[in-house]
């Protein structure tokens, strides 16, 4: 992913936000804010016929050195192309890229209603650690999240 991909990435992100089942965010940031909050070494886009249709990126979980190999990930797929295996293929590739970059744990929070995201995570070797009940409000409604994690079998073993 490069800065030039941002318009497509932002459009896909905004569509995910609009579903109400992808994130607690309610609006997309500008490129500078998004770029500051995501790690530079693991950003991928998926393209179909040179059109960006999905993206994945990492955010740090802590500034402490002991957590240098632990990151939170995000993955979003264009609404028109969901259900075609793009998310699973992207997440699988993303896992490999993150391991080559030295990350030993990937984690994320997923709304329980987002069954497609849960399914691709489980298919890519993630496990559900637990459920955070009423962890935060989105549009005035308390929401639960599932915490998923994937521990590398090649990094940090």
Could you characterize the architecture of this molecule?
This protein has a single domain, classed as Aminopeptidase (3-Layer(aba) Sandwich), CATH 3.40.630.30. It is built from 4 helices and 6 strands. A 6-stranded mixed sheet has the order 1-2-3-4-6-5. The model has no long low-confidence stretch (mean pLDDT 96).
- The Cα radius of gyration reads 15 Å
Helix content: 25-40%
Do you know the CATH topology? Aminopeptidase
* Structural class by SSE content: alpha+beta
**Shape type:** globular
Total separate domains: 1
Q: Runs with pLDDT <50, length 5+? A: none
Largest sheet, described in full? 6 strands, mixed
CATH-scheme architecture: 3-Layer(aba) Sandwich
What portion of the residues fall into strands of 2 or more residues? 25-35%
The counted number of beta strands is: 6
Main-sheet strand order equals 1-2-3-4-6-5
- Measured between the Cα atoms of the first and last residue, the distance is 29 Å
Q: Tally the helices: what do you get?
A: 4
CATH homologous superfamily label: Gcn5-related N-acetyltransferase (GNAT)
Mean pLDDT: 96
CATH class: Alpha Beta
Question: Could you spell the SSE succession in H and E letters?
Answer: HHEEEHEHEE
């Amino acid at each position: 992913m490069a800065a030039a991909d941002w318009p497509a990435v932002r459009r896909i992100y905004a569509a995910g936000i609009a579903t109400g089942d992808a994130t607690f965010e309610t609006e997309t940031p500008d490129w500078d804010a998004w770029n500051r909050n995501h790690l530079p070494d693991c950003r991928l886009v998926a393209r179909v016929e040179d059109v960006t249709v999905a993206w994945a990126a990492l955010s740090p979980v802590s500034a402490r050195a002991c957590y240098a190999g632990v990151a939170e990930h995000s993955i979003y797929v264009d609404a028109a192309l969901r259900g075609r295996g793009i998310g699973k293929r992207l997440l699988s590739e993303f896992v490999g890229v993150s391991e080559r970059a030295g990350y030993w744990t990937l984690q994320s929070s997923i709304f329980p209603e987002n069954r497609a995201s849960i399914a691709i995570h489980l298919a890519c070797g993630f496990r559900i650690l637990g459920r955070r009940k009423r962890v935060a409000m989105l549009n005035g409604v308390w929401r639960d999240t599932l915490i998923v994690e994937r521990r590398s079998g090649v990094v940090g073993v």
